[in-house]
Amino acid sequence: MAVFVFSDEDLRHDEIKQFVLGRYVSSNYAAWRIFGYEIHLSSPSVFHLNVHLQKRQLVYFTEKNARQVIENPKGTTLTAFFKLCSVDEFAATLIYPEVPEYYTYNNNNWKRRSHGTELDNWPGVSRKNVIGRVYNIHPTKQEIFLRMLLHVVTGPKSFADLRTVDGIICATYREACLRRGLLLNDDHLHRTLAEASNCKLPWQMRRLFCSILIHCNPSNPLNLWESFRQSLSKDIQTNLALRDGNDDVYNEALIDMDRHIRRYVIRGLSEFHLPTPVHHEAPLDVEYMSEKNYNIAELTETITRDEPRLLPEQREIYNEIIDSVRLNQGKLFFLNAPGGTGKTFVINLILAKLRAERRIAIACASSGIAATLLQGGRTAHSAFKLPMDIGKKDNPKCNIDRSSSRAILLRECSLFIWDEATMSNKAICKL
C-alpha cells in the first residue's frame, strides 16, 4: 500500500488532479485495457415502473400551466401500458413487469425494441434481457393490492380490467386480490387475538389489535374487528353499564384505537377500512378506566398467595407503605436493595393491594425493560409526559393540561411507584 500527501494547497481541493497523480496502473490493468475488455458493466439493466391509483399519478406544474396539467396530465409507464395493450396484440399477453423486455419507453409511449433476440412466433418482436421492477408500496397503502394485480393480470386495458375477475368488476383492488386467491387468510391473527382474550385486559387487546393493523397487514381487518369487538370493548361495557353489543360501547373502543393508531398512521382506522368512530364532546377516557378496572378477583388471589411469602424486612416496608396510603400521610419512600432481593415482588404486591381497594396506583420506570416487570407499568416519560430533551431545557415542563384526563388521573392517584428512579435526569426532580 502506498500513502502520499499533497503539499500544494491547490491540489488538495482538485479531485481530478489528485486522481491523475495518485493513480497506479498495474500490468494486469494495462493488459485488460489493451485487450479492450469492459471496465464497468451492469447486466441485466433494471427499468423502474410506476404504480399509482387512477388519476393519482405524480405531476409537476407551475402557476402558468396548472390548468393545462390538470386537464391533460402527463402519462406514466402504467397508463402507457394500458394504451399499449389496447393496440398491440403481443402486449396483451404480457404482465406489467415483462413489458421492458420487449418494449422501450420514450415520450410517454411504449415502442417495440428494434434490437435484441427475435421471437419465432411473433415477427417484429425482439427481446432483450431487461428487468422490469415495479416500485415498492407500503403494505398499509391501497396501492399494494394494485401492485399485486399488475404482477398477475395479463394485458389490462384500464384500471377496471385489473379489478375484473371472472367477468365481475370488483369494487376494490383488495377484493379482486381476494377473488384471485392472492391474499393469505388471517387464521393466525384470529388465533393470536383469541389467545390474548384469555389472558389480557381489554385495553391491552386494543393495543395488540392496533399493532396487528400496523405491522401484520391483515387481509380482512373488518372481519377481525367484528370477530373480537366484544372482547376488545369489555371494560367499556362494564364501566358504562350497558348491555352487550351496544353500538356506543363499540364506538368508544374504536375511538380509543383510533387515537392510539394516529400516532403512527395519519388517517387512523380509516386507513384499514374499519368503521369510523363518532367522536363526541365528552369522550370516555379509556386510560382512566384501565386504572380503575383491574380484576379484583385476580388481585385478591395474588394477595392471598404472595403476602405469606414476604420476608420480615419486605413485610415491614410493605405494611408501612400501605398504611401511609390508607392514612393519606403523603410520605416519600426510597427502597434500596441489591438486585435479586425481591424489590419487584414487593412493588407488584403493593400495587395489587391498593388496586384491590379500588385505589389508583401508577407504576413507572426509567427504562422500558424495567417497566415491563411492573403490573400495569409504563415508562416515566409516558406516565408524566416528560420532554425527551429535558436535560437541555432551562425550564422543562410536563406536557399535561391541568384539565385533561391525565391530570385528573394523577390527582386521584394514591401512590406513585418509580422504579430505577436514580437513573433519571436530575432535572426531573425540579419539575
How would you sum up the major sheet?
Answer: 3 strands, parallel
Helix content: 40-55%
Rg is 32 Å
What would the average pLDDT be, to the nearest integer? 85
Strand content: 5-15%
Q: So how many helices?
A: 20
List the helices and strands and how they pair.
Blueprint lengths: L14 H8 L4 H8 L10 E5 L16 H6 L5 H11 L11 H4 E4 L2 E4 L4 E2 L7 E2 L2 E5 L8 H8 L8 H4 L1 E2 L2 E2 L3 H7 L7 H13 L2 H14 L5 H12 L1 H7 L6 H15 L24 H7 L3 H11 L5 H15 L16 H14 L3 E6 L2 H5 L5 E2 H5 L20 H8 E7 L12
Parallel strand pairs: 1-6, 9-10, 9-11
Antiparallel strand pairs: 2-3, 4-5, 7-8
Summarize the structure.
With 431 residues, the chain is mainly alpha-helical. It has 20 helices and eleven strands.
Any overview of this molecule?
The protein has 431 residues and is mainly alpha-helical. The chain is 42% helix and 10% strand. The protein has helices spanning 15-22, 27-34, 66-71, 77-87, 99-102, 143-150, 159-162, 173-179, 187-199, 202-215, 221-232, 234-240, 247-261, 286-292, 296-306, 312-326, 343-356, 368-372, 380-384, 405-412, and strands at 45-49, 103-106, 109-112, 117-118, 126-127, 130-134, 164-165, 168-169, 360-365, 378-379, 413-419. The strands form five sheets. The chain has a three-stranded parallel beta sheet with strand order 10-9-11. The protein has a two-stranded parallel sheet with strand order 1-6. Helix 6 packs across helix 8 (173-179) and helix 9 (187-199) packs antiparallel against helix 10 (202-215). The longest helix is centred in the middle third of the chain and has 15 residues, at 247-261. The chain is extended and about 95 Å long. The two termini are 59 Å apart.
